[in-house]
Design a protein that fits this description.
Length: 184
């Protein structure tokens, strides 16, 4: 598994070649507890996520509404959910769907899909997928474009996990709420 400590010139070259831009709509199906703070990353900060360790805020957004709903309701019945759309203009995204870029870092799609990431985080304090994401951030990426691993999703269902965002470039993310329904 690729670790921060193993970063060398070849790894930096892979990161430079793997930069993509994302411009368009993104979606999240939020727990209503966080509906008034759709840009906070607070839930991911409290509990950690596949690509962020506990203590590090992150936003996990989907490229489609269907994927967002599947991501938010991974277990059991559909729970109360607040749907939020975002307008995004994000530079420097690492596209993990590029198998050549992953191979250049000695990773595979299966490494990223490892369902044991949460157990590894509990046991070791940080999961290998989180360590990978920290390396990407250290190389100037604002986030990761990843295949969704939620039940019922397919190869074409993707998410954008952001560790860097704001109301201006190069990682602009804005809630699409022109009617001020969230009153944020």
């Amino acid at each position: 598994m690729w670790l921060l400590e193993s970063l060398d010139a070849a790894d930096a070259g892979v990161h430079a070649r793997s930069r993509v831009q994302y411009r368009g709509k993104l979606y999240r199906a939020l727990n209503p507890v966080y509906a008034r703070e759709p840009l906070s990353g607070r839930g991911a900060k409290l509990y950690g996520g596949r690509f962020n360790p506990k203590g590090a805020p992150a936003l996990y957004l989907s490229l489609s509404l269907d994927t967002a709903i599947r991501e938010a309701n991974r277990a059991g019945s559909l729970q109360p959910t607040t749907i939020v759309a975002y307008d995004a203009d994000i530079d420097n995204v690492f596209d993990t769907r590029d198998t050549d870029a992953l191979a250049g870092l000695s990773l595979t799609a299966s490494d990223l899909a490892d369902p044991a990431w949460r157990d590894l985080m509990k046991r070791d304090g940080i999961a290998p997928t989180q360590q990978f994401a920290l390396g990407c951030i250290a190389q100037g990426h604002h986030g990761l474009l990843v295949r969704s691993f939620a039940r019922g999703t397919g190869e074409g269902d993707s998410n954008l996990g952001l560790r860097v965002w704001g109301d201006a470039g190069p990682a602009r993310l804005a809630v699409a709420d022109d009617q001020d329904r969230l009153r944020i």
